Amino acid sequence: MKFGGTSVGSVESILNVKKIVEASSDSVVVVVSALGGVTDQLIRTAQMAQEGDAAYLDSYHEMVGRHHRMIDAVIPDVEKQIELLKVIDAMLDELKSIYQGVYLIHDLSEKTLAFRDIAMTKNVLKDRLRNIYHTRIVYPTLQNEEEKKEKTEE
Q: Which of 69, 57, 68, 70 is nearest to 98 (CA)?
């Protein structure tokens, strides 16, 4: 099952996805993308940092708050919330460091913009979610998309 965009854009939509997955009598593979609008916000925030706009921090904190609210609303078990928040906060702290570096040097390379290091940490989150929900979760990455494109072009 693949979910992206508006299907993971709000608490209500994620709860709906959760119901769909939990209703399946078979083992399922769940493919999810970033929360709706987050990818664009990641890029906008990086561009703000590159331009020396200190408001990048406000945008960053907005993303943090959105993820925290989503976890609070979607995961009822407080212990599991705490476990997931530790992982998410570590990833978000890494993202903040990247933004701060971009802000300080006013440079946004393709490598930085792709956030490959952040995408790789999704594997940690995937494992935690799998342990919480006993479901296999797959995160598509930019690298996977590039590999598909290369194969198509051959």
A: 57
